[in-house]
């Protein structure tokens, strides 16, 4: 009698050992941190999403159904959208805001609102790609396109990132110059700002949530600073509401209007957001969990961009109130904005010059750190580099800091030279926009990439928004080059470069099989329209 239970226990032990062996084999086949594939976040770095709803042990959970809304879960998913929103608040955007306010008054606020809405649509698609595939946009581009095209896309993305980073670092250096009362020159401010790379690395060691908390503090600093300025200057509320609700555009403000739209879509930010959303641990095999993540990311991204819109609104209305219709309106820029504010509104207990400097410093520091973050994902994804984070961040930072120090030394002679530099940097980033938007829309519409989460009816809206942004930036490029290009040699080089640029865009569009014929019929005459499947 006693031998039978012993045999059963022996069999149970054997089954237990066999299960452990299978589990260990299975875990060894999972990709580890030492695998050859570059990943945005290692598994140990991801935030674990806990189920707060009580589940009866006797019930079988249907993972194809999206769980009910939970405020606690929303809090766990909150973070990536706010890091993404910082690109809407960088010093380049602030300069576009203050110039739009000074030259166009309140008349372009409606455009700022709709441009932010367009930016939100693009960023939600970027997040969708990252969540549904578990890979970020740079990685997917490396697999989607031939090697030469992938390298060219990486080069374009790096150029856009360098252009944005120069503006962000210069903006931060200007803020340091303001707050030091002119004691620290621009190049010293650039070196101080460059050190944020090491601060970023230090913070990252403490986890994703700690890093997100620091960015939340920086965004709150911007919001409080510019809200304080809004309260001090007391803009006209009636004109503000009319400016938001009533579309108005004149030939005198067309350039500022183009700048408002152009500043919102940042190429490196499209790549960044698709990687940031992978900081949460989501089981891609459970459709309901993926949809749940998309829902929460949509909410937090929308809230983040509403806050960024309010901050941009504060800056635009402050300069509309103070400088619209004055002789200084056409000459105001990021360099002299603080001085003009001090002359207009004076000192007081807390001078408006220093409030502006604090807000600008928060914008510059936060955007340079997210630029470093984006650079790591772009380089790692396109080139599939497996480097230590500190080394990858150092390489990424050097790509931008070295040109920025050179720029600071060369262009620190006058305000006009920095304004010219800023115009060229805006052009540099505008050129790169198609090389982020077209791959994004190509991938998000492919069933073999997205599975059940490929976008359907909204695709035409997304392509229309992308086409609108590209056309608006094309106008900016045409306007800029028509005034700046002089000489036969330079003109010939620009023409050759433009032909190659357009050819590459056509190539990228040709690889997107999801563009419906109805969208093309909006652009082509009827006799040339594509018919059939």
Quick structural gist:
With 533 residues, the chain is mostly helical.
Could you characterize the architecture of this molecule?
The chain has 533 residues and is mostly helical. It has helices spanning 3-29, 71-77, 80-85, 91-104, 109-133, 137-144, 147-179, 186-194, 196-204, 208-233, 237-245, 254-264, 267-276, 287-323, 337-345, 352-383, 389-411, 415-432, 434-444, 447-450, 458-484, 488-510, 517-521, and strands at 47-48, 280-281. Strands 1-2 form a two-stranded parallel sheet. Helix 7 packs antiparallel against helix 16. The longest helix has 37 residues, at 287-323. It is globular and about 70 Å long. Residues 5-12, 15-35 and 516-533 have low confidence and may be disordered.
Please outline the helices and strands:
Elements: H1 3-29, E1 47-48, H2 71-77, H3 80-85, H4 91-104, H5 109-133, H6 137-144, H7 147-179, H8 186-194, H9 196-204, H10 208-233, H11 237-245, H12 254-264, H13 267-276, E2 280-281, H14 287-323, H15 337-345, H16 352-383, H17 389-411, H18 415-432, H19 434-444, H20 447-450, H21 458-484, H22 488-510, H23 517-521
Parallel strand pairs: 1-2
Helix content: over 70%
Task: Based on Cα principal axes, name the global outline.
Answer: globular
**What is the terminal separation in angstroms?**
76 Å
Mean pLDDT: 80
Instruction: Estimate the strand proportion.
Output: under 5%
Main beta-sheet strand count, sense and barrel state: 2 strands, parallel
Give the neighbour order of strands across the main sheet. Answer: 1-2
H/E element string? HEHHHHHHHHHHHHEHHHHHHHHHH
Q: Calculate Rg over CA atoms.
A: 26 Å
The helix-and-strand class reads mainly alpha
Number of strands: 2
